[in-house]
Automatic annotation (TrEMBL):
InterPro entries recorded: AP5Z1 (IPR028222), AP5Z1_ARM (IPR055450), TPR_AP5Z1_C (IPR056856), TPR_AP5Z1_N (IPR056857)
Start and end residues of each AP-5 complex subunit zeta-1 N-terminal TPR domain: 1-268
Source organism (scientific name): Denticeps clupeoides (denticle herring)
AP-5 complex subunit zeta-1 C-terminal TPR domain residues: 438-517, 530-761
Pfam family, one: TPR_AP5Z1_C
GO CC list: AP-5 adaptor complex
Domain AP-5 complex subunit zeta-1 ARM repeats residue range list: 309-426
Protein name: AP-5 complex subunit zeta-1
Name of the encoding gene: AP5Z1
Database matches in PANTHER family: AP-5 COMPLEX SUBUNIT ZETA-1 (PTHR46488)
Length: 771
């Protein structure tokens, strides 16, 4: 919301009459003609900016005003405030003509940038003006280059693209190898004088030959050297924007792969590479530039900052070579010898870990074509990086992005990828807040039928893994003989001693293991949708056991346990729906879990889900192995629980169990009794006592009136339903195929007969109605 004053000014600008506006244009034109521009000129331009921008439709400025604004904008001596105002007014008005806007352009950086900004602000982006700014050169060409890539990529034609390619080649390959002229202090009377420019040097102090790159060092730089560095910084983006598959391809990009290969080999052996088409020549010179950078990175830098620059340049150089090899596959054979030597040099130094990431990407993209063994590269990437550099946030991010971008290829061609999930999870354990979303996307790619429960255990043990990684880091920092107490006190010292104890070493080594423990273990994910993709009967049984086992072994972290129990309760229901037979296969474990009253208090949601599963799926309709004896066993176990939690003693306060637990228990017992009708009398007796239980004074003090009503109503409904055992079996235990859409139409099925039977009984004996 604008203030009242601002709203008033905008309203005046919108409602200005044409006669008054023309008078204002004349006054502005006179002010712009003056050689001296006072504060009144600035105020008038500000008002003009408000007028042309306050309406929905752009205004057409008078030609005289427009020309004077453009003249002032292009003037080298124009104050910056006036230049910005002129640019803002022209940007908001109807587009000026291309010729008038680009006429008289000079190499003044500010003028070129302002003109390009005006063109970009217009509705119809005109790349011709921007290219003219670009070709004039100077430092403004860099910002213009960014504009070309970001805004004009769909407006450039073949000739314009070739023009940019030629300029990039000139800047990359033919920059001067001598330092820029610098001023030295002369005598008192002679003043400063220029020194003779000396040669550029390598990072180790050796004089540069005939090839300047961003890794060449000097006291001052010439303009073409700055352009060389700027051009390389934007080279990757330009190649990605105009690759051989892009919409703005040059004519050379339509050749067959064989012709492209021949052209590349000619360019590699011929000294007349100037005969190549612009796009191929840019590839060739870019490739040479990257090879030169890789060679320079092997030099011992004198300054530490140059060492860091070497690492950054290596990352960029390998990435550019990867793009070139994707465009022209013949470069793959020229690149691999260089990159294999580079990997051999860097693999032993973890300080260059980030530089190894693009090398791994190159191997992943091209090793199969070149028949190069890449196993050692990926073993190094998946083993040493997470194990030894888990505490490097930037490397962790780049590692996870690499895995995300190449999930399908890694699954198919790198067998070690899935086996290395214990190592990969170390990045998540140490940097979890920043990487959780990425790992949720990455997790399905790590899953298969050969690694299962171990991943679920690993996910649940992430707090333990993070603590162990912290101990590992501290243990490497402090010697075993140190007896000082650190910031966390004696507890930390004791933990470090335990980490070093031989008796505990095996446990810590297992937690820090780099690969999956055993190949026959199965992999699991916490996402239900992923479960349903590949879970079979055996896997479901294992997962159900893990859920029951780990529900009692969760870390007491705020909200961690409750959230995991919520996830467990939802997923175990999904597993049982997919494979109801797990109730038979894991009957002993489920009996023990459901028969323990303590699970109601500590795992309410999970306990309720397990009891519901028993009532829903423990039936011969789902598994022919379901016997009366098994149903009776579950019934007696749950009956004992219900009796225990509803037993009211006057001397003690009754446990305050959630009413949903009671209603689910009563419903499940009724379902089981309907499948073994000998149990109905026992259950009816127990349910008849629920009204007394719910209305007792101790219980009434713990439950609300709505809760008490819910318990009494459910018990009453079930008692009345069990009076008709056959009807109860039909209602409480419908067929697993009851959702078939033909049930309401097919008269040969049992549902219509059952409905007619129920209707007849209710009409003959209304005493059977619930109530």
């Amino acid at each position: 919301m604008y203030s009242a004053g601002t709203e008033s000014l905008i309203k005046q600008a919108r409602e200005i009459q044409d006669e008054e506006l023309q008078k204002f244009y004349v006054r502005v034109s006179k002010m712009l003609s003056s050689k001296e521009h006072c504060s009144e000129t600035i105020d008038s331009l500000q008002r003009l900016k408000l007028i042309v921008s306050a309406t929905k439709y752009a205004r057409l400025l008078p030609a005289e005003v427009q020309n004077k604004l453009q003249t002032l904008l292009r003037s080298p001596g124009c104050p910056e405030q006036l230049r910005l105002l002129c640019s803002a007014v022209l940007s908001e008005s109807l587009p000026p003509s291309v010729r008038s806007l680009s006429a008289g352009l000079t190499q003044d950086c500010r003028s070129l940038g302002s003109v390009a900004a005006i063109v970009l602000a217009q509705v119809a982006i005109n790349s011709i003006v921007i290219l003219k700014c670009y070709c004039i050169g100077g430092f403004s060409a860099i910002s213009t280059m960014n504009m070309l890539i970001n805004y004009c990529c769909f407006f450039l034609f073949k000739d314009q693209i070739n023009l940019v390619n030629r300029k990039l080649v000139d800047w990359l390959r033919y920059a001067s190898v001598h330092q820029g002229a610098s001023l030295s202090s002369g005598g008192f009377f002679t003043g400063p004088r220029s020194r003779q420019p000396g040669p550029m040097t390598e990072v180790d102090g050796v004089v540069v030959g005939d090839f300047f790159t961003v890794l060449c060092v000097g006291q001052s730089y010439t303009e073409d050297q700055w352009m060389n560095m700027y051009a390389f910084s934007m080279l990757r983006k330009w190649l990605l924007t105009y690759d051989s598959e892009g919409t703005c391809n040059t004519e050379s990009d339509d050749r067959s792969e064989v012709d492209s290969s021949v052209m590349s080999m000619v360019s590699a052996t011929s000294s007349s590479s100037r005969l190549l088409p612009p796009k191929e020549r840019l590839r060739e010179k870019s490739f040479e530039y990257c090879q030169r950078l890789i060679e320079q990175s092997d030099r011992k830098a004198i300054k530490r900052t140059d060492t860091e620059l070497q690492k950054v340049c290596l990352i960029e150089a390998v990435a550019v070579m990867d793009i070139i090899c994707k465009e022209d596959s013949s470069y793959v054979y020229r690149a691999f010898p260089c990159l294999k030597a580079l990997y051999g040099r860097l693999s032993g130094d973890l300080a260059f870990a980030r530089a190894l990431m693009p090398i791994a990407q190159f191997y992943l993209n091209h090793s199969e074509m070149a028949a190069v063994d890449s196993e050692a590269v990926f073993r190094h990437l998946l083993s040493r990086f997470p194990s030894e550099m888990f505490n490097e946030p930037l490397l962790a991010f780049e590692f996870v992005q690499f895995c995300r971008l190449n999930m399908a290829v890694l699954q198919e061609r790198v067998p070690l990828y899935r086996q290395s999930f214990p190592n990969i999870f170390k990045f998540l354990a140490w940097n979890s807040p920043a990487l959780i979303a990425d790992y949720m996307e990455l997790l399905p790619s790590l899953m298969c039928r050969e690694t299962a429960v171990e991943i679920l255990h690993t996910l649940l043990d992430l707090p333990c893994l993070a603590a162990t990684l912290d101990l590992q880091q501290k243990s490497a920092t402090f010697q075993a003989a140190d007896r000082v107490l650190w910031d966390n006190g004696t507890k930390l010292a004791n933990c470090l001693e335990a980490f070093r104890q031989p008796s505990c070493r095996g446990l810590f080594l297992y937690i820090l293991r780099p690969e999956a423990d055993l190949p026959e273990l199965v992999c699991v994910c916490v996402c239900v949708c992923v479960f349903s993709q590949f879970t079979d009967k055996k896997l479901s049984n294992q997962l159900a056991l893990v859920v029951l086992e780990r529900s009692s072994q969760l870390y007491r972290i705020s909200k961690f346990k409750s959230e995991l129990l919520r996830v467990f309760s939802a997923h175990i229901r999904t597993l049982c729906k997919l494979h109801p037979s797990l109730l038979i296969d894991q009957s002993r474990e489920l009996l023990d879990f459901a028969g323990s009253v303590s699970n109601i208090s500590s795992k309410k949601e999970l306990y309720t889900s397990v009891v519901w599963m028993i009532g829903e799926y423990l039936s011969v309709s789902y598994d022919k192995r379901c016997t009366v004896e098994l149903i009776t066993s579950f019934f007696e176990s749950l009956e004992a629980v219900l009796l225990e939690i509803t037993q009211v003693r006057q001397s003690t306060k009754p446990p305050n169990y959630h009413p949903r637990v009671l209603t689910v228990l009563m419903t499940t017992l009724s379902k089981l009794a309907s499948r073994s009708q000998d149990l109905i009398p026992r259950l009816s007796l127990s349910l008849s006592k629920m009204r007394t239980f719910a209305q007792s004074a101790p219980v009434a003090s713990c439950y609300s009136e709505e809760d008490i009503e819910e318990i009494i109503t459910r018990a009453s409904e079930l008692v009345n339903l069990l009076k008709l055992p056959n009807v109860a079996q039909f209602v409480l235990a419908p067929s697993p195929h009851g959702d078939n859409p033909r049930w309401h139409k097919d008269t040969n099925t049992s549902l219509p007969h059952s409905m007619r039977a129920v209707s007849g009984l209710l009409h003959k004996n209304s005493s059977f109605l619930p109530g």
